[in-house]
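wait is this the right file?? whatever heres the structure
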């Protein structure tokens, strides 16, 4: 079983990391085009590994 990350990212963390507005992160979620997120109660969180895979998939598709 894989170890859990030290912490999961918030939408604000994702926005800061990618240099986009927080509203863009929420728009991606509504359109189902962004990184996979999950809810913990009312709070939205992102797994750092899943975010990294999503970013990698974008960079790989740019090369094709």
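ok assuming it is, sequence goes like this
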């Amino acid at each position: 079983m894989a170890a859990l990350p030290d912490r999961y990212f918030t939408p604000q963390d994702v926005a800061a990391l990618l240099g986009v507005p927080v509203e863009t992160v929420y728009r991606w979620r509504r359109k189902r085009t962004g990184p996979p997120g999950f809810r913990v109660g009312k709070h939205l969180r992102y797994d750092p590994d899943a975010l990294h895979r999503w970013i990698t998939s974008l960079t790989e598709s740019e090369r094709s």
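The first helix runs from residue 11 to 18. so i think its the right one actually
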